[in-house]
Structures are given as structure tokens and as C-alpha cells.
Amino acid sequence: MKLSLxxxxxxxxxxxxxxxxxxxxxxxxxxxxHMIVDREANQITIDFDFKQxxxxxxxxxxxxxxxxxxxxxxxxxxxxxxxxxxDESFRVxxxxxxxxxxxxxxxxxxxxxxxxxxxxxxxxxxxxLLARALLAAPGGRLSVYPSGEASIxxxxxxxxxxPDGTLEVTAYEVLGLSLNxxxxxxxxxxxxxxxxxxxxxxxxxxxxxxxxxxxxxxxxLSTERFVEIQSNVAQKFNVPVRIRNVRVFxxxxxxxxxxxxxxxxxxxxxxxxxxESSVSEGEVVVDGEGGTLVPGMYEMHxxxxxxxxxxxxxxxxxxxxxxxxxxxxxxxxxxxxxxxEIAGPRITRSCFIEGKSxxxxxxxxxxxxxxxxxxxxxxxxxxxxxxxxxxxxxxPEWAETLVEEAHRLGMRVxxxxxxxxxxxxxxEAGFDExxxxxxxxxxxxxxxxxxxxxxxxxxxxxxFPTISQDGEDVQFTIGQMVEKNVAxxxxxxxxxxxxxxxxGEVAPLARDIIDHLPTNExxxxxxxxxxxxxxxxxxxxxxxxxxxxxTLRRMHNEGVLLVPGTDLGGSFAYHRELELFEKIGxxxxxxxxxxxxxxAVYLGQxxxxxxxxxxxxxxxxxxxxxxxxxxxxxRRIRMVVSDGVLYFPEQIYPSFGIRPFAQAPEIITSTKAxxxx
Length: 677
Description:
By secondary structure, this protein is α/β, with parallel strands linked by helices. Helix content is 27%, strand content 30%.
């Protein structure tokens, strides 16, 4: 029986009964850890620990709550997913609220008793406490510490069977803190039942059968949200669209044209004309006001989901090479994008194959034998994957056979360097591309038997300052890559973030965008990714990043093709990735060519993409200035055309709690009759 809202509010304000509940953490259906919650009166103790792909958080929490369920004291200690130390706290002291997280210490007078502290590095249980408080708050809204406002939306009620019988569970979305709503489910007593997303769920022990339904439900909610956003922001016309008074970046000449008019019809570029050409009857006209049109860019190391698909479009990323995903999840996403149901980039798929071990990544397909590996490669080859990506637990001795089979089926091979092997060995085995610069360089510093399936593949980078750029090992690897035409996907931005970001300081990636982001996003960009215990250890990491830049600069100069990708979701991180390509020796114009035309050629898509020419797909974006002189212009995108549909970031960003960076251009001529159904 569904509880009335009145009864639920009474239950929410009751003190928590003494109870211990164990929750299982499931990723892609695999049990990867636990959250154990001990509740007694107003005291809550939490043990949160899960590991996947050799990494994961280990968190201990102690929370004291008042009669309303608001935290009055909260300590959070442990390690984050990448090993960064957590020492977070909150307490109420008289008329003051005091807290400390990775951004530093904070203090505020308690003027409004409804303020609620939002944790930075705790378990998901904190969101359940917040959800309970929001349900009891006027209008379902609360101001929160350190800043901002949270709200709640009721989504659905469902039932689940388990050892405690049938539980009636209500799903809520907590909004206002992050780029996307956070899904929290409470049972009929107002207690935390579960959290879920497309690949993750946390459910009470004995209720694991709910996992798939919860994840499907999370995808359904996400899809509904993005369908609604798409209906509000996509501008699709059934008549020609003329973007006039623009300069066009030509990646083949590395120059901007004189002022032009670019005409789009359907999803193709109908013509590129002289500026101020005659306008035919019924056209929609957009004035570019002397700005620059740039071909749509390629994020070459994505793991795309609905939550970042539209943000990539807003950032001018109209194509993504997905480097590993659950195949069914990705196939569904591709279908929704291609149908126009939601917005997202064109996707080039990689088939992610991992070896079986205690450190196996949950994403992709896991194989235990060479024969299983061959069968999986053939499965990929029959489903039009562009390439196969191998991962850390793949057995090195299988590489040559699996690569040969992938090549026979017309697929390229990229990936991590399997544990207990080197990049040199994978290049010899026939890899077409090595993924991540640390994977490439670790072979120069590792000792026999050292295991890169754990966080050691990150911490071992502290040895990079011992590398000599003129050493025989470095020269041999780069020489082999040049000779065998092996490309490299360095993901520079994630290495910069991991090695140089410090607690309390704005990370380099976020310095130009942080003031535009919602509160929890701002906090996340003021936290270290790879933890250090001493300033000396951080100095070692910073020095390692400088060696990475020197190595990539040398690789570029010697002719190794470096492809731009982030492994950070693309979007704003992709803009930083391109700035780092400039730091290793490319000019801004060369960076733009690498991000667009060069990648279209690399993926065999240049007949349709990569430049703004008659007959090609209408994938490009408008910035007000000249990005061939200053790449920071990429953050001021005014309009994106993706598959012929117009998007204005100024209209998109508010749906994510982001303050826009630039104003949309004016659509000069448009009538309802022009708009496609």
C-alpha cells in the first residue's frame, strides 16, 4: 500500500531505530564491495568500500544527527578511488557551522535552521539523509553548506522482494548540487534503500535481484530528462539554414577564409558562398557577426553516456571514439542519438576486451582463455566495431594471435599495455595504437614482476624524472612507433590533473570554468586526484608531468601521430586537452586540424567529416573570435550545428546548473512553418 505523504513526513522526522544494514555495491551486475550502516538513536556509523579495476574508495563515516535528521557532527576519513587521503569534517558549534573538506576550512553563522551540510567525499548515504530532509522541508527545497540550494523530485514507487519481505520503495531525484540529478530510493519507513545509475547500484544484502531493474529505471529517468531537454534546445529546420558573415577555418590550409555564408540543408552542407550572397525564399538566416566556424571536433578517448552526450555537443565535440562501454548500453545510446530522441555526438565504437583476474575491469567483455579471446574478437568483427581495445589483465602471450585475428577482420587494435609486459612488446605484437602516456612510459621504469593492474600504474609515475630523453629505451620505443606507424592516445589532461592537482587549489583544467559550475562540481575541481602524503611526493608527481610533456614533445617532433582524448568525459576537459597539445609543440591552428580533419582521416571518415565543405555533414561550431590565435575561444562557443541541427550552449547549460559562457546568435528569419516536426 502506498504511504500518504503526511505519514511519510512523520516517519522521516522520527529518530532512526537501532539497526545494522549491509548494502552490496554492484557495477555492471558484479558485486564489487559493500556499505555497512550501523544506526543507533542519533548516531550513524558507515563502512564504505568497493574496488573495481584495481581501484575504489575506502571510507569510514561517523554522523550525529538531530531530531530532524540533520547532521550536527560528521567525520569522513579514508581514501578516494585513486588513493587521495580523505579527512573531512562538519560540526555545529553554538551558532556556527564549521567544516573542512579538500577545498579547505569553512565557517558560517547559523541564521537559518534549515541549512544542511552536503558532504564532498562521503558514501551515498549522505544523499539519503538529504533526501529525507528535503521531503520535510517547505517546497522540498533547502539551502546547503558550503553553498547552493538543493531540491527534490518524486519519480516513482516500486516493490522489491527480499529477506525482509516486500519493501515498497519510492525513487527521488536530488537536484541542484551537480550537473545531473542524483537518484536516491527510500523504503516505506523513509530509510535508505538504494542508489542507482546506468552501470551502478547499491542495494541491501538479499535484494541484489533489484539491480537490473534499478539500473534500467535510472536509464529511463535519464532518457526522459534528455528527451525533454532536446525538445527545448534542438533547432531543426526543414528549409535551408544560412549562417552568414562568418570566417571558416580550413584545416587543410590552417587558415581562416574571408567572410563567407555557409548554407545547410537537412544534415549536409549545401554550399559555402561569398558573404552577403542572395538569400533564397524561405531560408532561415543566422548572423555569425564576423565570428569563426570550426569543423566539429573528435574526442578520441570517450566512455560516453547520456549524462555527458549533450555537454560534448555544447563544447563543439560532434564525434566521439568510445574506448570501452557495456555494449548493450552503448548500442541503446547510439540508437537514441541517431533517431534524434536525444542529442549526442557521432560515435565510433571500440570493442573492449579484458582478461580475467581479480583486478578485471567490469566494463566490456572478460575472457579467461585465448580461445575465448578469439571468439570475442570475432564477435566484435561481426558487429561493425572500428577497433578492439585490450586492457590490463589481458595475457601478454595472447596479444600476437588476437591482434592478427582482429586485423584479419578489418579492425584496428589499441589499448593498455597488459600487466607484466611493455609497450615495446605490444608494438611488436602489432598494436596500431598505445593508449595513455603512462602505459607507454612505464616500460622504461618498471622492474620485473611489478603489477600495473593496481593503483601502482599511477604511483609508479613518480619514477619518470629518472628517464633520459636520449636513453636507448626511449629512442627505441619512439623509433618503433614511427617505423610501424603506431599512433598514441596520451590523454594528457587526465595526467595533468592526477599529477598536479592539489587539495584546496583549483585544478589547471578548471581554472577558466570553475565559477560557471554548480557547487559540488566546483568542490571536485579543488581536490587532488592522486593523493600524496607530503609536499615532496607532490613535487615528484609535478616533475613527472613535466617529463611527460617533454616525451610527448619529442614524439610529436619525430612524427608519432598523437590523438586528442581525455578519459574525463570530454566537454570542458577536451578544451584543456587541446591547450596541452599546444604546449607540446603544435600551433593553435595545428591543434584545431588535429582535433577535426586529422581525426576524420585517421578514422577513415574524411569523405563526410573533418572540414566545412559542400556535401559534407553539417557538423561545426561558431566562436566569436579567432581560435587559430587563441584556443581559449573554444570555451566561448555561441552555436553548434550537429548533423544539421542547431544548438545554442546558452540554452543548454542552465539545464546542468552551468552559467553560460557566450550569448547565442540571433535567428533572423524563422517561422513556425520552417520548423521540422
